[in-house]
Write a structure and sequence with these properties.
alpha+beta; eight-stranded mixed β-sheet; 30% helix; 24% strand; globular
Length: 184
């Protein structure tokens, strides 16, 4: 398992080459019982992304019959341990419910203080080039967690993700902005 974890870390380090990084962990709650190796690689702003980027490591250890193997990414305008906690929470949720692209996950509170967004959308990593999407060493897909509002989550349920994504494109949404307004 150590080689698999190392290959995930190396994938992210290679993609974000030139960014300063730090390996972090979250020891509160049940995450270490499910994935003892769980970590997060935090990348400082740099040439690939001018925001903070947090990448889960070890989530892909979870195997579901109906869901694929994933690692998750969150883009944040601020450096905060809250994102490490959020990635641990989503990983735990994934272990119970088997997340896939286009799924939504209720958080129950704002993803960051001052935000209207209290849900995650599991998305393709559109903010990055396609080379980040697959970790070849263990055939793991990389998904971006996009914070969305309750109204946006309801809109997806009623109208489908494609229509919401069109609205995101129309306003050139910077979804990582803490105080962004809902597009619906």
């Amino acid at each position: 398992m150590a080689a698999e974890i190392e290959s995930i870390i190396e994938h992210f380090k290679s993609y974000f080459e030139g960014h300063d990084f730090e390996l972090m962990t979250w020891d509160t709650g049940p995450i270490k019982k499910i994935i003892p190796e769980f970590q997060v690689v935090k990348f400082s702003p740099g040439k690939k992304c001018d925001q903070w980027v947090y990448c889960s490591v070890g989530t892909s250890k979870i195997n579901h019959e109906t869901a694929g193997r994933y690692e998750f990414i969150v883009i944040s305008p601020i450096e905060t341990d809250r994102i490490v906690q959020m990635l641990a929470m989503v990983t735990y949720f994934h272990s119970r419910h088997g997340l896939e692209y286009t799924d939504t996950v209720p958080i129950g509170e704002p993803w960051l203080e001052g935000s209207l967004c209290e849900n995650w959308l599991v998305s393709l990593p559109y903010s990055f080039d396609p080379s980040i999407e697959l970790i070849p060493a263990n055939r793991t897909r990389v998904a971006c967690l996009i914070p969305i509002s309750d109204a946006e989550r309801e809109y997806i349920a009623e109208n489908g993700l494609e229509l919401l994504e069109q609205q995101f494109d129309e306003v050139k949404l910077k979804y990582w902005e803490i105080d962004r307004a809902s597009v619906v």
